[in-house]
Amino acid sequence: MKRSNEPIFWSLFGAGGMLAALIGPALVFITGIAVPLGLIYAPDTMSYNNMLAFAQNWAGKLVMFGVVALFLWHAAHRIAILLHDFGVHAVAAVKLFSYGGAFLGTVIAGYALLAVGF
Amino acid sequence: MADAEKIIEIEVLRYRPEQDKEPVLQTYKVPFTDDMSVLQGLQYIKDYLDGTVSFRWSCRMAICGSCGMMIEGKPKLSCKTFLREYYPQGLRVEALAHLPIERDLVVDAADFVAKLERIKPYIIPKEARTLEQGEYLQTPQQRDMYEQFSSCINCMLCYAACPQYGLNPKFTGPGVLALLHRYNADSRDGGQDERMKLGYADEGFWGCTAVGYCSEVCPKGVDPANAINQNKMNSAINYFTRFVTPGRADK
Hints:
The structure holds two protein chains of two kinds.
Chain A: H1 6-37, H2 48-56, H3 58-85, H4 91-115
Chain B: E1 7-14, E2 24-31, H1 38-49, E3 68-71, E4 74-77, E5 91-94, E6 101-103, E7 106-107, H2 110-118, H3 140-144, H4 157-161, H5 163-167, H6 174-184, H7 192-199, H8 213-217, H9 224-241
Parallel strand pairs in B: 1-5
Antiparallel strand pairs in B: 1-2, 3-4, 3-5, 6-7
Helix pairs in contact in B: 6-7, 6-9
């Protein structure tokens, strides 16, 4: 039988899932609750200048790219499989919508992170 | 039947290819006692009410794997399920889902058997040993690697449970993939490469979307979902390392 190319998508899905499980809730808490409400962190933690500096640092770029791209690939695979389980098997269209979306998001994230400079 | 005053209604899905265009339900009123299994209820029907009802059974003790059927929509062994659980509302029994019906509750297992044969469900010795060299030894830890998967009785309940097999019968399916893992995980076995070729395909491990219902319905505590997930990892590692590991590129 022909070897499946699914490992590519499954690995991205697995990496994204692992990352989401490890840091997803913490990110939601920090960026969505703690910083806006002024808890724990300094009020200007997520100010434009701070975030720009973070995005201009190579380590910051790597973190942001990893979070955006891998979360997207995880979501794409989850959506594709969920649609399949719910009876939507228009394979090409589903793949274009889910994986295509993740690919587009990955490219945009990469471009934006390079565009803000170093 | 001393205390046979209780009567339960059993709806049986009938399909007699010579007279039925499609399966139809037929209801039987069966006197029962608390210790009677659904299989015994069907045997009562066959012996006393309607000799034409067909179903498979053999051991009556959940080891032969013959009497699997849908009981109130769930895949179960009828010998391991008791009528009392469905009293007084009654119950419906149907042939196993996703498999072609041969007659009444008897399904055609040809597809399952063909897939089972394909994965070589036996130990392919790593090395030839002479009688003088003695048996192949294995530590308890090595045995633990495959033991739960060796409990499979080929009852096909997991095939009736698996939505992916229902959607695409080309999918190798939970039971056979769990058995593939059972032999691959055996320290005495050397047939991994041949078996994994089947697993690496879309119809192999990748046909599974990790629903996990197979493991829930297994009457023997086998966890096919776990076997498949472990092998998705193995397949992914092989997929990416096959070009850098000598002798793996063609596998």
